Amino acid sequence: MSSGRITYTVSQLTGLVRAAVSASPALEDVFVEGEVSNLRMPASGHLYFTLKDAAAGLRCVCFRREAQRIPFHPENGMRIVAHGRVDVYDSEGVYQLYVDALEPAGLGALALAVEQLARRLSAEGLFDPARKRPLPVLPRRVAVISSSSGAAVRDACTVIGRRAPGVGVVVVPTIVQGEGAPAAVVLALDRAQRLSGIDVILLVRGGGSFEDLMAFQDEQVARAIRGCAIPVVTGIGHETDTTIADHAADRRAPTPSAAAEMAVPAAIQLRDEVATRAARLRQALRQEVAVKRRRLDAARERMARVSPDRRVPGMRQQLDGRAQQLRAALLRELGAKRRRLDRAAGRLELASPVRRLPAEREGLRRRAQALEAAGRALVRARRAALDGSRGRLEALSPRRTIERGFSVTLDAASGAVVTDPGQVAPGQRLRSLLAGGEVESEVVEGGSGGEASTP
After folding, report:
1. Mean pLDDT across 158-169
2. Element (H or E) spanning 367, and its range?
3. 212 close to 175: Cβ distance less than 8 angstroms
């Protein structure tokens, strides 16, 4: 082998490859079309998948920030176009595409992406009918968002001018087709709702192909419509065209002209409506007055029948009779209460503590004397019993037994009383209690014939 060869580590060689890839401008901005496989969407929000065709596969990663901007949900088997840059993943030594944008490949995939977005926004409640606002009955000023050069804005303004000449119209121009159209429409909606005195907004566009209407299939446009502070009426394309913006709007019209008719009622229709309602109101008022007059007449008749002038004499006589009954009842009740009070006073006098005090004091004195005598007798009896117990106790005391000439022998070690020769053994130390003191001795021979020596 040549001594001048160069040997790389795996990391060094991977670094060389990465540097070569990074130095290639063609790999910094690439579009790749293929079929999605091995799709993974972990909780981190990143997307990992492989783009493949019949001959090769390319690993791809789309980080969370870029993945959140993708307008559809990739699925295994879907053909897509991915945009990004190619770089080398050092840990595994493989190259992969770092994706910053995805779009479906072909019209079928594009329609699928729109359908997915519509289902997701509907599940979120963005199209809920309960969130849609009513249109004003008589708008004073209307904002029309559309291309300034298109036929849609001219049709809408013509219809408004013909139906209600007094309604003000403000055109908010925007592009309605192309890559920047969604952002432009969102900006136009924001400008329109900031204008002074706007009561309703028309978002209109003429007909076109499915791809031409993609600006109105955008999630941000739908959210801008739903978040607008002013009611929005859409008139996009032809009658057969329905976009996500139509679902998000407060009202949807099949064409721009129909949107203008829906937002602004015709003046002649308003006059007819006012006249019709006025006639109905007058008829209702006449009927209400007639009903009230009949009720008033009936009330007058009832009042005449129950007039106070006709009822006062009888009521006065009833009042006099009730007053007499009340006085008699009060006198009876007063006499009964006085008699009950007299009886209670007599009982109270009989039960007075002042009258019972001398007898109670004498009884207490007698009970105190009896208690004192009983106590003295009990003390004498207890003292006699105690003296007898003391005599018996002294008679049985071991000390008295010793004083009469007897002795008590104890084991010198344990202090236990020795009552039988069998309790001792030769060499055992004994202690004898005598009347004049104690004597210690040692057993020379145990048993009944044993002898004890005294040291």
Report:
1. 90
2. helix 353-395
3. no
